[in-house]
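Query form — protein Large ribosomal subunit protein bL9

QUESTION: What is the three-dimensional structure of this chain?
INPUT:
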Amino acid sequence: MEVLLKKEVKHLGKSGDVVKVKDGYWRNYLSPQGLAVPATDKNLKILQHEKIIEEKKNDKIKEAAMEIAEKLKKISCTIVRHAGEEDKLFGSVTAMDISESIENEGFKIDKKNILLDEPIKKLGIYHIPVKVHQEITVEVNIWVVKEKEE
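ANSWER: The structure tokens for Large ribosomal subunit protein bL9 are given below.
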């Protein structure tokens, strides 16, 4: 029996694939779980229509992410920390600190989207990659400066 997958099924295929399965597998597993429908012309047309709508939605989201990325390129954030000899920080600057600094500039970026390999432990200027969308990553300038001593 040929079925049209509505969702990804491990070892079988991804959403939109037409695959051949045994009747019992479709009747007892794929159909009750809502993972597949029979591969009829009607169902294929419905799936194509849903894919077009999904693509348009994703294009709008990607376009908005591009605008945010362009704005993020133009900002630079300053993080003030205590530092000792040879410009080593007492502590470190983490993705959370960078996220808060970017938020102070007017952009809400989750700390998981800041691609920091390891915490920053020295003063300086850093170009940190920030993931704005699945396919869009932008570098943000981060200045780590020494706190003024009184």
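ADDITIONAL NOTE: The first strand starts at residue 2 and ends at 5.
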